[in-house]
Amino acid sequence: MLDRLRRIKLKSRHLLIIFAVICVILMGLSLLSSTTRGPFRFMAGYTIVPMQKGFNHLGGWAADYTQNFQTIKELRKENKKLQQQVDDLTVENGELALNQKELTRLEELFKLDQNYGDYPKIGARVIASNTSNWFNSFTIDKGKKDGIRVNMNVIAGSGLVGIVTEVGPNWSTVRSIIDDLSYVSGMMLTTGEKCMVQGNLKLASKGKIRFEDLPVAENQENPVEQGEQVVTSYISNRYLQGILIGYVSEINDDESGLTRSGYLTPAVDFSDLQDVLVITQTKSDQLKKQTSGNKD
What we know:
The protein is an alpha+beta fold.
C-alpha cells in the first residue's frame, strides 16, 4: 500500500513538471502569436490558446491532487495519533474503575472488621471457586503458614460467609452457608428465638436462604416480622455468636402449629466474592478460653 502511494506521488510530480514545461512552451507560442500577424496568429487563437487553457487547468488539477494527497496523509497520521490517545485513555479509565472497585471492597472489609472488632481476623483473597456462578465452596490464598485452621469462621460483605473445611500450606477451602451441606444455628436478634438456617444452592440463585424450626413465641408482644436480623446463635458448636446471617424476608406458620419457617435475604452477595476476612479464633478456642477463665 505504501509503495503504491509512493508511485502515485512520484507520477504526480512528473506530471506537474511536464505540464509546467508545456505551459512554458505554450506561453512562448502565445507570446509569439501576439507579436505576429497572419495565419499563424489565427491558428493560435483556435489551437494553442485553448490547449494552453486546458493544460493550465490540468496542471492546476495535478497541483490540487498533490496537495490533497499530502493533506490526506497528514490527516491519517493525526487520526492514528488521536486513536492511540483514545486507546490510552480507555486503558487508564479501566484501571481507575478497577482501583475504585478495589477501594470500595477494602472499605467494606474495614467496616466489617470494625463491626466485629472483638474477634481477631486476617484478610484473604478468593483464588478459585468450585462453581462458575455461585460461591458455595471456594479456595482462599491463606493456609497453615498464615495460622488458618479448620472450623474458622469466614465473613465478608455485612456478615457470615461460611466456615473453613480444609487447610493446606498456603491455601484453604471454605464452605459457604448457601451450600447444600451447610447448617447454621441462628437466632432472631431482637427476640432471641433460635432457628436452623439450611443451605440450598437452588434457593441461593433466587437470593434466598431457608430457615426452619423457629418456635412459636408464647409472648406475641414482639413477633418476628420481615426485616428481622438473624445472627449466629450462642448454642452453635462451630460458629461464633452474633455474626449476621441475613434478614427475614418471609415467615409462615408450619402445619404443626408449633414452629415457623421462612426465608432470609443473605447479608453477603454469594455471586461475587473476591476478598474475605477469616476470624482466627474457632468456637472451640472460645469455649476453652471461657472454661479456663471460669477455673481461674
